[in-house]
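Problem: given the chain below (169 residues), write out its structure.
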Amino acid sequence: MFGDLQKSRIIAYSAAFIGLISLGAWVSVPFFPVPLTLQTLFVLLAGAVMKRYAVIPVSLYVVLGALGLPVFHTGVAGFGVLLGPSGGYLTGFIFAALVVGLAYERESETIRITGLLAGTGIIYACGVAWLMYSLTTGLIPAVISGVLPFIPGDVMKVYAAYRIAQRLP
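Solution.
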């Protein structure tokens, strides 16, 4: 690792984004069945900054929370959180980070914006699928409770991630 700037950056950014995603989990507005948090902003931003390597901090974040570190919304932790209503969204973070990261490896602003929107869509898709399973509900109720209330906030998060990433080297 000594002298390898790329690996050093990956480690430093990974630590930073694990911390930011954890911090974003504490900014929580209670909703049912899942809370509104700033986690998705930092997941999207990780993809924009770290490219495909954003999978590393996001995966570690989910694993650390599952192992019992209080990093999920409002300090909850444990594998049981992944089995609860939020589990699909948390798992979707990993795939979203990869999609956003791959999009940000391109120079096209259109591809980057599409990647941010697709990443958000992946989080929704994983979340809704798991809501349907964990709450034994249908597609329409899962979308009504697990997507619609979050769209305005997530549009702002996508915009914020895009603008912040534009200003970073």
